């Protein structure tokens, strides 16, 4: 039932003592990076400031902007030749937030995933089809290594190519899959097209759903369509990727692996910690990472700690399903997108006006993004070829930036309503 019983069911007091040692060790390591070396010195803080876990609050938060501003190597804490892998946050291009791993980091991460997959019931003998993007995104390789560690047979299918996914699933009697929830729904329409019933015509028993927010209702719907059990998997590239928090068979929140991560929930306005059980923003300090340790990283993900012990016997606390974000990042088809990325691209294109609006829609099981863009009045008189040309250019430029092809609608100046105060950049019409 447990991958590592001793660690997973460790006494809270013992676990917290181990966390303190790991935190002190992490601070010593982190200080070797350019960023933390400088920050600790400026603030007169360091490992000697920490006598208990509560002392973590003496340290400043780390944000995605800090990572971007010290791109690419400002956070690495070991000599470059100790690094064996790089990953980045999904969807971002150019100055993406990048993360680096040593060989030990990869081993620790792999073990965390093995722990998660085993907890959900995957075993040696399972045939695991990994329908996540391989490459810079952490979802592909992260799960791949973890599943191999358990001894499952891994089919590195990657994302997309739905008919082939279904064929692989049937030909090789796949028993477990890893999939983005919105893609699981989309894939079900391809089963319909092929006149196949996923419940009868495949052997999948377990699914891991991750990389994007989804509701309990959506999980139920996916379980109903496929007839498998679906587990929520949470992670972010800055904390390795998947394997940060995962559901156990009781499926009441996700165990967050506290031997590897020190967890805080803060009020995103006051930035003060909130008591266990209250909702806020998840802040994490890595406790095992050596290539790129992060101290008090603001995930911007909103959740709460479930303080009650779990019936499964694991002592690592649980967090609730992610409720949303405290910033304006949106996730479409598993890809992270900031409205600012779109704005920057648009503003570089001659002819584009100052206002735009992103509209997210769900039709059937397909999520889409339409970007309404105000362009110069001259494009709407006479020959409309120029308008078409501009539209094509905008689509191309945006696709290059966000890795998803948006629909683009060009409109006359001042036709997008302006509210008072902060511009509304996103309308999310995706419904269950
Ligand atoms: P990335 O750095 O590209 O791996 O993206 C990480 C982000 O994806 C997280 O900060 C969350 O906002 C989102 N995410 C990942 N897994 C989940 C999940 N199971 N539920 C909700 N959001 C998720
Ligand atoms: Zn549990």
The CATH topology of the largest domain corresponds to Rossmann fold
Main beta-sheet annotation:
12 strands, mixed
* CATH H-level homologous superfamily name of the largest domain: ANL, N-terminal domain
Number of domains: 2
CATH architecture of the largest domain: 3-Layer(aba) Sandwich
Overall residue-averaged pLDDT value: 94
Give the helix tally.
Answer: 12
Q: What sort of overall outline do the alpha carbons produce when their principal axes are compared?
A: globular
Strand content: 25-35%
Distance between the termini: 34 Å
Helix share, percent: 25-40%
Rounded Rg: 23 Å
* CATH hierarchy, class of the largest domain: Alpha Beta
Seen as an oligomer or otherwise, the chain set is: single chain
Distinct bound molecules: adenosine monophosphate, zinc ion
Structural class: alpha/beta
**pLDDT < 50 stretches:** none
Q: Report the count of strand segments.
A: 20
């Amino acid at each position: 039932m447990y991958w590592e019983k001793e660690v997973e069911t460790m006494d809270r007091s013992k676990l917290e003592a181990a966390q303190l040692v790991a935190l002190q060790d992490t601070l010593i390591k982190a200080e070797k990076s350019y960023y933390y070396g400088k920050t600790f010195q400026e603030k007169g803080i360091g490992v000697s400031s920490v006598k208990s876990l509560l002392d973590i609050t003496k340290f400043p938060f780390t944000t995605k902007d800090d990572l971007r501003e010290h791109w690419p190597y400002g956070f690495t804490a070991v000599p470059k030749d100790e690094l064996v892998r790089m990953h980045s946050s999904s969807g971002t291009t150019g100055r993406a937030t990048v993360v680096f791993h040593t060989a030990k980091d990869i081993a620790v991460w792999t073990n965390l995933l093995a722990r998660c997959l085993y907890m959900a019931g995957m075993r040696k003998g399972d045939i695991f089809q990994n329908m996540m993007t391989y490459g810079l995104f952490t979802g592909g390789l992260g799960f791949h290594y973890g599943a191999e560690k358990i001894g499952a047979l891994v089919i590195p299918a990657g994302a997309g190519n739905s008919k082939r996914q279904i064929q692989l699933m049937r030909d090789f009697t796949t028993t477990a899959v890893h999939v983005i929830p919105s893609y699981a729904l989309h894939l079900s329409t391809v089963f319909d097209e092929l006149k196949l019933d996923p419940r009868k015509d495949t052997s999948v028993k377990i699914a891991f759903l991750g990389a994007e927010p989804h509701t309990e209702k959506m999980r139920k719907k996916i379980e109903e369509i496929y007839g498998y059990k679906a587990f929520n998997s949470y992670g972010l590239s800055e904390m390795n990727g998947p394997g940060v928090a995962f559901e156990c068979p009781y499926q009441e929140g996700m165990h967050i692996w506290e031997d590897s991560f020190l967890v805080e929930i803060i009020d995103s306005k006051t930035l003060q910690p909130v008591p266990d059980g209250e909702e806020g923003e998840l802040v994490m300090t890595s406790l095992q990472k050596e290539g790129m340790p992060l101290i008090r990283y603001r995930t911007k993900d909103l959740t709460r700690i479930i303080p009650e012990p779990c019936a499964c016997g694991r002592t690592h606390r649980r967090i609730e399903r992610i409720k949303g974000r405290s910033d304006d990042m949106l996730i479409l088809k598993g890809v992270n997108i900031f409205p600012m990325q779109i704005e920057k691209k648009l503003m570089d294109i001659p002819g584009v006006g100052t206002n735009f609006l992103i509209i997210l829609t769900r039709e059937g099981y397909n999520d889409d993004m339409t970007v309404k863009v105000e362009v110069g009045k001259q494009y709407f008189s006479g020959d409309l070829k120029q308008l078409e040309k501009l539209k094509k250019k905008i689509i191309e430029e945006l696709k290059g930036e966000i890795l998803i092809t948006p629909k683009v609608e060009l409109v006359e100046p001042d036709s997008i309503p302006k509210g008072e105060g902060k511009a509304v950049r996103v309308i999310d019409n995706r419904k269950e």
